[in-house]
Amino acid sequence: VFLDGGGVVLALWDWDKLAQDAVLSARSPPQSFRGATFAWNCATPAEVDAIFAKAIEAGAGLLRKPEKTDYGGYRGYFSDPDGHAWEVVQAPGFAFTGDGRLILPE
Amino acid sequence: VFLDGGGVVLALWDWDKLAQDAVLSARSPPQSFRGATFAWNCATPAEVDAIFAKAIEAGAGLLRKPEKTDYGGYRGYFSDPDGHAWEVVQAPGFAFTGDGRLILPE
């Protein structure tokens, strides 16, 4: 599956096949931090809560309930069935275009 | 560091701090497959070779030298200093906008 992100594409593929393509050992998914997370940026804390609840309802693992951050944002973390960590976050200064693209603060 | 990818942003952050934010154990980077790779899509095999050589020259680890794939593409893999696997690839049917954004095949 390829998801068009507007210039950047998120591609989903079979765990073992991608490991094989990268010539890496496809042991069971590491349980510790993998050095990368996905962040789903939202416009409001309420949107964070809604998306987070939807993920948990769909079977995601709870890593950290949404809460205020020390930089004035609001975020939580869940893990997907493959153990990837996803952040759902509303960050001050981060805005969006009409079609949902993230705009970085100046 | 935030790198604007046109709607999707690649953010670089301290390994330990991101692990802490996601409430995950920040042990040493897993050496086995982590379930995700980054792909740098190129327009031609020659561009793949050039980018790949630049990465290796900059100290990247060699996972797989660029070579033809069974789907008619051309790709190699290197690992960055944090052990993330990067694919450098030219895939048939994948094109680019004038400002370098990837266009998926129809």
In short:
Chain A has helices at 15-21, 45-57, and strands at 2-4, 9-11, 38-41, 61-68, 74-79, 85-90, 95-96, 102-103.
Give a structural overview.
- 2 copies of one chain form a homodimer.
- Chain A is of the alpha+beta class and 106 residues long.
- Chain A is built from 2 helices and 8 strands, in the order E-E-H-E-H-E-E-E-E-E.
- In chain A, strands 3-6-5-4 form a 4-stranded mixed sheet, with helices on one face. In chain A, strands 1-2 form a two-stranded antiparallel ribbon.
- In chain A, strand 4 (61-68) and strand 5 (74-79) form a beta hairpin.
- The interface between A and B is large, with 41 and 42 residues.
Are there runs of chain A of 5+ residues with pLDDT below 50, and where? none
Please report the two chains with the greatest interface, counting residues with C-beta closer than 8 angstroms to the partner's C-beta.
A-B, 41 and 42 residues
Helix content of chain A: 10-25%
Oligomer: homodimer
Q: Give the tally of β-strands of chain A.
A: 8
Separate helix tally of chain A: 2
Q: Which structural category fits the helices and strands of chain A?
A: alpha+beta
Q: Specify the overall morphology of chain A.
A: globular
Strand content of chain A: 25-35%
Sequence of strands across the biggest β-sheet of chain A: 3-6-5-4
- Give me the strand/helix succession of chain A: EEHEHEEEEE
Average of pLDDT of chain A: 92
The major beta sheet of chain A can be summarized as:
4 strands, mixed
Distance separating the two termini of chain A? 33 Å
Radius of gyration of chain A: 16 Å
